Amino acid sequence: MVVALAMDWQELLFANWPVDPDLVDAHLPDALAVDTYDGSAWLSVVPFTNAAVRPRGLPTRLGVDLPELNLRTYVTCEDTPSVYFFSLDAEGVLGVLGARLFHHLPYYYARMNHRRSESGTSRFESRRFHPGARPVEFAATYEPAGERFDPESDPLATFLTERYRFHTEAPDGTVRYSTVEHDPWPLYPANVRIDENTIFRANGFADPVREPVHYYSPGVEITTSPSKRLQEE
Known about the structure:
233 residues; 11% helix
């Protein structure tokens, strides 16, 4: 039986690139439609630490911390705005295997280092070591810049962050989804330096040429539902 999970997403960077919708559509299952903002689809690279991951209802102290890096885009399914994950890299072999087997998520094993300095600067480094998978290397430094704002004050930030369902395509070709619950993201503009990023090429995309939009968040508490096939109610 697959259980719902609770966790804290901490020290996030939302690095978002506008791209041609047709480029994204070619990589999506037929059941999903590209969602756009100002005529553009968006690809987002999101590094963070998945802290205190545990079955919902267990105390935080029994959870495990797993740094994570994902590449995602924005879709609609039956008029519901959602996130679609192309890949999720994470540290922890058992966590990766569990996510693949029980939640049908495209997780890959990587070695990661995520640390935050006393001044508030985060350094995130990741290198994929998953057998048979395309290599991914990512390294970035980021920090909040400016005043905190809520997504509802910024339509683009709302589009890119306030989504409460995510979809994936399972190895058997079925589309699956889970729902998520969390408070609105506390967001800041971000200063970002990306030193290495091969995650686009690993997922069949050319590196975007347009300038990205960056947000930083200290994080929120998250709960997720079990994974379901799209046709299930």
